């Protein structure tokens, strides 16, 4: 299993780091089997698995439940779990007990926290307690209400500078990795050059140290439309819809079950009957 030290070495060697989200045992097994370097149990599960409109309703119990399934499905891959909405903004002791649940109860290898500012102090405390932390800057979906939508971040000078400052502070606080979402490509490049920790981008251009995408997005599984920054590699919606229609048709027309699907009682053998 690759660890935070290996990810740093990959950055030094300019070897791209592949992160993919997973939410259950089969998606985790697919990520591991497909060669992902690191799995993220993203709170995007609120949308792609649980049917919420945003990541805001996702709870600690949800993250624990799904992280356990992911760990069972991918036994040899580093797993990072998102700390959900408002679980790292109160007293440090609350942040610590939430992270402890993810690490001890769910066996996550690291946690991810969105945002700069005061969140950086929480990162420092977690790291000093032995919790590997990934920071997350740029578009931070848990703050969608404050940001006013899923918009590209860091487009003007002030936003760009604030983001660079937060990134430097996150590294100094001991973060092992930085995820940046929906920012201009030039800013993704600047961040990767500035930091010694790996910068993993999503909608952050071609020059970050690694890339992360959402499992359901690359498979077109669930939502019909995916954002511009996604590459779709398969169309599961189409495959699944066709398969389910075939099943309903087969049952309604009587062509399922067929002879090969049914069971018969034991045939009485002639000699057993004493004939
Ligand atoms: O929840 C998630 O899937 C994420 C990634 C998009 C980075 O945070
Ligand atoms: Na997330």
TrEMBL record:
<dbReference type="GO" id="GO:0015940">
    <property type="term" value="P:pantothenate biosynthetic process"/>
</dbReference>
<comment type="pathway">
    <text>Cofactor biosynthesis; (R)-pantothenate biosynthesis; (R)-pantoate from 3-methyl-2-oxobutanoate: step 1/2.</text>
</comment>
<feature type="binding site">
    <location>
        <position position="82"/>
    </location>
    <ligand>
        <name>Mg(2+)</name>
    </ligand>
</feature>
<feature type="binding site">
    <location>
        <position position="82"/>
    </location>
    <ligand>
        <name>3-methyl-2-oxobutanoate</name>
    </ligand>
</feature>
<dbReference type="GO" id="GO:0000287">
    <property type="term" value="F:magnesium ion binding"/>
</dbReference>
<keyword id="KW-0566">Pantothenate biosynthesis</keyword>
<keyword id="KW-0963">Cytoplasm</keyword>
<dbReference type="InterPro" id="IPR015813">
    <property type="entry name" value="Pyrv/PenolPyrv_kinase-like_dom"/>
</dbReference>
<dbReference type="GO" id="GO:0005737">
    <property type="term" value="C:cytoplasm"/>
</dbReference>
<keyword id="KW-0479">Metal-binding</keyword>
<feature type="binding site">
    <location>
        <position position="112"/>
    </location>
    <ligand>
        <name>3-methyl-2-oxobutanoate</name>
    </ligand>
</feature>
<keyword id="KW-0460">Magnesium</keyword>
<dbReference type="GO" id="GO:0003864">
    <property type="term" value="F:3-methyl-2-oxobutanoate hydroxymethyltransferase activity"/>
</dbReference>
<keyword id="KW-0808">Transferase</keyword>
<protein>
    <recommendedName>
        <fullName>3-methyl-2-oxobutanoate hydroxymethyltransferase</fullName>
        <ecNumber>2.1.2.11</ecNumber>
    </recommendedName>
</protein>
<dbReference type="InterPro" id="IPR040442">
    <property type="entry name" value="Pyrv_kinase-like_dom_sf"/>
</dbReference>
<feature type="active site" description="Proton acceptor">
    <location>
        <position position="181"/>
    </location>
</feature>
<feature type="binding site">
    <location>
        <position position="43"/>
    </location>
    <ligand>
        <name>Mg(2+)</name>
    </ligand>
</feature>
<dbReference type="Pfam" id="PF02548">
    <property type="entry name" value="Pantoate_transf"/>
</dbReference>
<dbReference type="InterPro" id="IPR003700">
    <property type="entry name" value="Pantoate_hydroxy_MeTrfase"/>
</dbReference>
<comment type="function">
    <text>Catalyzes the reversible reaction in which hydroxymethyl group from 5,10-methylenetetrahydrofolate is transferred onto alpha-ketoisovalerate to form ketopantoate.</text>
</comment>
<feature type="binding site">
    <location>
        <position position="114"/>
    </location>
    <ligand>
        <name>Mg(2+)</name>
    </ligand>
</feature>
<feature type="binding site">
    <location>
        <begin position="43"/>
        <end position="44"/>
    </location>
    <ligand>
        <name>3-methyl-2-oxobutanoate</name>
    </ligand>
</feature>
<comment type="subunit">
    <text>Homodecamer; pentamer of dimers.</text>
</comment>
<comment type="similarity">
    <text>Belongs to the PanB family.</text>
</comment>
């Amino acid at each position: 299993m690759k660890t935070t030290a290996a990810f740093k070495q990959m950055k030094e060697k300019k070897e791209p780091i592949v992160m993919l989200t997973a939410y259950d045992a089969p998606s985790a097994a697919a990520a591991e089997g497909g060669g992902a370097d690191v799995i993220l149990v993203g709170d995007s599960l609120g949308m792609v698995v649980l049917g919420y409109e945003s990541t805001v309703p996702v709870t600690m119990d949800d993250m624990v439940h799904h992280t356990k399934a992911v760990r069972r499905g991918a036994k040899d891959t580093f797993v990072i779990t998102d700390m959900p909405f408002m679980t790292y903004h109160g007293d440090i002791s609350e942040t610590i007990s939430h992270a402890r649940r993810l690490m001890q109860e769910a066996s996550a290898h690291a946690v991810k926290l969105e945002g700069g500012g005061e969140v950086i102090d929480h990162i420092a405390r977690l790291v000093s307690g032995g919790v590997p932390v990934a920071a997350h800057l740029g578009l931070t979906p848990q703050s969608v209400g404050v940001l006013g939508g899923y918009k590209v971040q860091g487009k003007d000078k002030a936003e760009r500078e604030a983001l660079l400052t937060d990134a430097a502070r996150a590294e100094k606080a001991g973060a092992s990795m930085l995820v940046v979402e929906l920012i201009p490509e030039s800013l993704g490049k600047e961040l990767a050059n500035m930091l010694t920790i790996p910068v993993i981008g999503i909608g952050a251009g071609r020059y970050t140290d690694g890339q992360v995408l959402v499992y359901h997005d690359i498979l077109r599984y669930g939502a019909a439309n995916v954002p511009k920054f996604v590459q779709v590699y398969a169309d599961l919606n189409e495959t699944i819809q066709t398969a389910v229609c075939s099943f309903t048709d087969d049952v309604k027309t009587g062509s399922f079950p067929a002879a090969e699907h049914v069971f018969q009682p034991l045939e009485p053998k002639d000699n057993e009957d004493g004939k």
